[in-house]
Amino acid sequence: MKKNVLMAVFCLSFLGVTTLPLVAETSGGWVGYVTYTPRPVATMIGFEDVDLLWLRDVSALVGVDGFTFLGRRDTDHWMALTNKGATWLLQIHDATARYNFRAMIQPRNGRITVEKGVDWSGTGRDADAAKAAEMAVQYVQRARSAEGLFSPAEAVDHAALGHTAAPAAASHAAPAAPAAAHGAPAVTHGDGGQAFWQRLVDGNLRFISGRVTHPNQSFARLEETAKGQKPFAIVVTCSDSRVPPEILFDQGIGDLFVIRTAGEVVNEVELGSIEYAIEHLGVAYLVVLGHERCGAVDATLKGGDLPPNIEAIAAQIRPAIEASRFFKGDPLDNAVRENTKLVLAKISGSAIVAEALHAGTVNLKAAYYDLDTGRVAALP
Ligand SMILES: [Zn+2]
Question: Has this prediction a pTM greater than 0.85?
Fold first, then answer.
């Protein structure tokens, strides 16, 4: 079969035919995929240099064979990038719009080859492959500029579109264990706060790829928010000078309601601040952000006598050290992660937060900040 396909490619190339429709792969892998000779697709639409640079940065961060979601609303709407070294594999799954395909991108020149899942429009696979390649460019541009992939506004009901299911051409189990956007929301209301998390993830992707947009930092924004604030997320994190939320999430004035203490510990004062933001500002999302090599956790781990006020912080971190004592791996990193989750648990124990969780008006997430890469990842 392989030999026949190669022969067909040769003959078609010889005859000057530039597209190769409907190559059936029967020896394993994708069945019934469509491929295009790259040249016409690339010359027709191509990526801009800035898109390729951005993809290169993201790929470099995830490493060879690394995988990351560039955008994700739920299991039916996501876009992911796998770095295969010599190629990048872009997968887009949008059940609402019925765009489901996999595209190979050549890092050197941005050449796109659509591989599978181009059977959605009923206008033919050739047309769909061209459309898919065009969409790959658009989606990458949207991811790069953080326009909000798969925004809730796009979640029109399937019945209105006459769509009842994803096309049969592709199977779409969402890939497992993504580093960037993994972790179940604490409650299931609406989209589980996914849009808020996505906004933070998008900002962090801009930050780590050097494509920051510094949103909402104009004087006009200052004037707008002077009348009242409507932050979209509460961030509880460490006072460590290397973990500034607005910078690492690329957000601006009035976006984040931030609580910072050493080791992101919370007591009555911090819990009161959180409760105020939820009750009076209507904030519907909260992230507890622990970070790599946290000095407060490290000091607690090392033990010894501490001055009374610092001891008050250590006393709150100690349960995390106890809980992670027998974990495999690095004791400090284990304790940081455990502490982040315990802080989240403590916050969810507040009567007001618990009530909001029960009502489905708030979602919580624990996350981890990597000091070396600048990357934020959800904690499982
Ligand atoms: Zn810290």
Answer: no
